[in-house]
Design a protein that fits this description.
CATH architecture of chain B: Up-down Bundle
Strand order of the largest sheet of chain A: 2-1-3-4
Order of helices and strands of chain B: HHHHEEHHHHHHHH
Largest interface: A-B, 81 and 76 residues
Distance between the termini of chain B: 48 Å
Number of strands of chain A: 7
Distance between the termini of chain A: 59 Å
Bound molecules: iron/sulfur cluster
CATH superfamily of chain B: Transmembrane di-heme cytochromes, Chain C
CATH topology of chain B: Fumarate Reductase Cytochrome B subunit
Largest sheet of chain B: 2 strands, antiparallel
CATH class of chain B: Mainly Alpha
Radius of gyration of chain B: 23 Å
Number of helices of chain B: 12
Oligomer: heterodimer
Structural class of chain A: mainly alpha
Helix content of chain B: 55-70%
Helix content of chain A: 40-55%
Number of helices of chain A: 21
Largest sheet of chain A: 4 strands, parallel
Number of domains of chain A: 2
Number of domains of chain B: 1
Chain lengths: 500, 294
């Protein structure tokens, strides 16, 4: 840790513009860059950070324990994709955590106060603060390290705390603060306004009509619908996300589902989650608020990774209980979604897998015969409760050629795309390509061995980031959502055999 | 650097005890005062630390799960890796605490330069070393209860005789003592030779290792080589345990070294990473308890 931090080009994001902070009322808005000598922190920044740590120790036992009980066994060391890809020792999860632990010891633990440096304690200086900033924005909170830790020490949670501290001083990245402000003001990360949302979807509907001859007419903000559908805004904007979205539209049409889109709660993801718990809660709230306003029975969520972690592990605590909603029941099959009993929000992979199991969909997997598919487990869906089988079930029913990647790189051991938690900016491309190396490498292996040419996933961020990653490392492999594959295979009533 | 420093600290401790007993004859200090003070520090320190932890609430149930969750009825879920009921949680925790499940999963990841290409391999040495160390430590501690109890409980006797079942030498060689020392040596060597682990190691990581090695070595020396008068040792330890301390004469200095190192470990315990023992339950419990279980 004696090695001073060096901001290498292409490995960090821009500092946030002041307007984004002003829009959501976060402190210390100003023009700044991480490369500046002076970050224009308030004079008492150090007190703010230390008080912030103290407060979080008191509010969160996990954080407190994680500060105390690591034995530096090193089991987590080579599990982080950023360490594997960059070789930078401070990217070993244990050392990433030690960056903060050392300061914790100095100010909060008896051992550190008694034995100082010998106990691994160090002073909080501006250099240390910069080092934190650099390395806690090189962690995608993927939790792969915690799978291997004998105490379940979750470096992701330490990173979350660090990022909360940065936000006490206005040091968010531009790429996170922007979507947060957009989402707060306009309902989604991309800042799409209602008319843009509807017209984007209309474009997709035109395409669907052209291919299938079927005209779909979804509804927006319709009161009294049975289901509110919320998906990450990435699905509304840009390929290949839009193809996945077309898959949803076709599926719902075929089912005759009584559902509606919202142009207000138009974001499933939550960049507030990469900012602070308070911000995440604030942004998350609109989903329930909209469900209440529209009077729906329950909520269906699109393909997204961190959205799922938020819904499954935080939403109920923040904004529950959602007792104005009903326990989700599939109107097509009558299946009760027991695991969504409290949140009232179902992941579409579960919804669709259930339909297929009950034989409610007519699928022609041969329509996907030009594809050899592999599946990437998103960090959040795999390690934040485990949606592992449903997407595989859908793929296996929609495609004839499916090949798993190496067993040490899938399911709970899956590798991050390298760009999660708001690191999917453009200016840190070097970092992203390095962090994505383990994932790309596993794809390359199945490409070479089985001729795989399609990387499926259930995450909107993946669809954007893996595309870039594949272009760099494995150029002939494309990326798709699982519902894109389903949409391809879906035989729609009245148009049987019309598509090739 | 950290290793040398820690080694030096332990040597100083040994010399202190040696000088204190041999030179100054401070039997009461090393035989009564320090052990009591150390145990008091240990108990108080651990309690305070646990209270401190338990004062912080657990706002979210956010375990890292390692398997399919319980969702649709026809999908087989992973009862132990993503438990949905109390039984599963207890199972997951027991596997972790008793058998070090997570370490069993350990992999080696290597970046090969033809490509670049990543290669994965199983790596269970740390699991084996850790398990060997912790279990033999536990048995050694249980065995030592015979010094603090009269009559000696049946269970302790059984473990004692099982441990010496090889019946080599007199007194019988205790397997756990040897395993303990070997495991400690392995844990030390990996800190020195695996570059990543060397990089992350602090003096505070070597110190407990050396202390424990010192304790084990002095114990083995005492049992098999210097052969202190076991009856008198028991008189002293039983006195300590019954709060009726006394110093029988004629116990060899090696015993006091052993005792002093143990006292140092006890006193150091609450301030050190050894607190992972207390934290592991809380942490593992929290990390194994998914929201569907509540
Ligand atoms: S695996 Fe856990 S205990 Fe071991 S070094 Fe990593 S965080 Fe620390
Ligand atoms: S959470 Fe993921 S990115 Fe962060 S340190 Fe652990 S393995 Fe690395």
């Amino acid at each position: 840790m004696e090695v001073p931090v060096e901001f290498k080009p292409g490995t960090f994001c821009y500092g946030t513009r002041p307007k984004y902070l002003e829009e959501v009322g976060l402190p210390n808005p100003r023009e700044w860059s991480p490369l500046d000598e002076d970050w224009k922190l308030p004079a008492d920044w150090k007190d703010t950070v230390l008080a912030g740590i103290g407060e979080r120790l008191k509010k969160n036992r996990a954080f407190h324990l994680f500060m105390d009980i690591c034995v530096r066994c090193g089991a987590c060391a080579d599990k982080c994709h950023f360490f594997i890809g960059s070789g930078d020792p401070k990217n070993m999860p244990v050392l990433r955590a030690e960056l903060m632990r050392s300061v914790y010891r100095k100010y909060f633990s008896t051992g550190g106060k008694l034995f100082g440096n010998l106990a691994g304690a160090r002073e909080l200086t501006f250099e240390v603060f910069k080092e934190w900033w650099y390395y806690f924005y090189q962690c995608t909170e993927c939790r792969r390290c915690s799978v291997f830790c004998p105490y379940g020490i979750d470096t992701a949670e330490i990173t979350m705390m660090a990022r909360e501290l940065f936000n006490l001083l206005g040091c968010n990245t531009d790429w996170i603060a922007g979507p947060v402000a957009n989402c707060y003001r306009k309902g989604n990360h991309l800042g799409l306004e209602p008319h843009t949302i509807t017209s984007n979807i209309e474009f997709m509907l035109d395409d669907i009509e052209e291919i299938t001859g079927i005209k779909i007419e979804p509804t927006f903000n319709r009161k009294g619908a049975e289901i509110l559908f919320v998906t990450p805004s990435g699905d509304l904007f840009g390929d290949p996300g839009t193809y996945t979205c077309m898959g949803y539209l076709m599926l719902f049409h075929e089912l005759g589902l009584d559902y509606t889109w919202s142009t207000y709660a138009s974001e499933g993801g939550n960049f507030g989650f990469f900012t602070s718990m308070e911000m995440a809660k604030r942004l998350n709230y609109k989903i329930y608020a909209e469900a209440k306003r529209l009077g729906v029975k329950w909520i269906l969520g699109g393909e997204c990774g961190h959205m799922w972690r938020v819904v499954h592990q935080y939403m109920d605590t923040w904004n529950g209980p959602a007792d104005f909603l009903e326990e989700p029941v599939s109107p097509i099959t009558g299946t009760k979604f027991e695991n969504a009993k409290t949140t009232k929000m179902v992941h579409i992979a579960e919804f669709t897998a259930d339909l297929i199991k009950h034989g409610k969909l007519k699928l022609d997997p041969s329509r996907n015969d030009h594809l050899k598919v592999t599946y990437h487990d998103s960090c959040n869906t795999s390690r934040g409760m485990g949606i592992l089988e449903e997407p595989r079930y859908i793929i296996n029913n929609s495609c004839n050629n499916f090949h798993e990647m190496h067993e040490d790189t899938i399911r709970e051991k899956t590798f991050c795309c390298g760009s999660g938690t708001g690191l999917n900016a453009g200016e840190n491309m070097e970092l992203r390509m390095r962090g994505g190396l383990p994932r790309a490498n596993a794809v390359k292996h199945v490409r070479d061995k089985h001729g795989v040419n399609m990387l499926a996933n259930i995450c909107a961020i993946d669809r954007a980031t893996l595309s870039a990653l594949m272009q760099y490392w494995v150029p002939d492999v494309e990326v798709s959502g699982v519902h894109e594959l389903l949409g391809n295979a879906l035989v729609m009533t009245g148009r049987e055999g019309e598509r090739d | 650097m950290g290793a040398l420093l820690s080694f030096f600290v332990v040597i100083v401790l040994v010399l202190l005890a040696l000088a204190g007993i041999k030179g100054a004859g401070l039997y009461v200090l090393f035989g009564t005062v320090i052990p009591y003070a150390a145990v008091a520090t240990f108990i108080l320190g651990v309690i305070l630390r646990v209270i401190k932890w338990s004062r912080s609430p657990v706002p979210f149930h956010i375990p890292t799960t390692c398997g399919q969750e319980k969702s649709l009825p026809w999908i087989k879920y992973s009862k132990l890796e993503s438990p949905a009921g109390t039984l599963g949680v207890i199972g997951r925790m027991a596997l972790e605490v008793l058998l070090f499940r997570s370490l069993f999963r350990n992999l080696k990841t290597e970046l090969r330069n033809d490509g670049p290409r990543l290669a994965y391999g199983s790596n269970k040495w740390l699991w084996l070393g850790g398990l060997a160390f912790h279990w033999s430590m536990l048995i050694v501690i249980i065995r030592h209860l015979r010094f603090f109890t009269h009559p000696v409980p049946f269970l302790v006797k059984i473990i004692d005789s099982l441990d010496g079942f090889l019946q080599i030498g007199a007194p019988h060689l205790m397997i756990t003592g040897v395993v303990l020392l070997l495991a400690l040596t392995y844990l030390f060597l990996r800190r020195v030779f695996i570059p990543q682990v060397r990089y992350i190691s602090l003096p505070a990581d070597y110190l407990p290792l050396f202390l424990l090695m010192g304790i084990a070595t002095s114990g083995i020396l005492m049992r098999y080589f210097f052969k202190v008068d076991i009856i008198k040792v028991k008189e002293l330890t039983l006195g300590l345990a019954s709060l009726n301390p006394g110093i029988p004469s004629g116990i060899g200095v090696i015993f006091y070294i052993h005792l002093f190192l143990i006292s140092s470990l006890f006193a150091y315990f609450p301030f050190s990473k050894l607190m992972h023992m207390g934290g592991v339950f809380s942490s593992v419990l929290q990390e194994t308890w998914p929201i569907t279980a509540v």
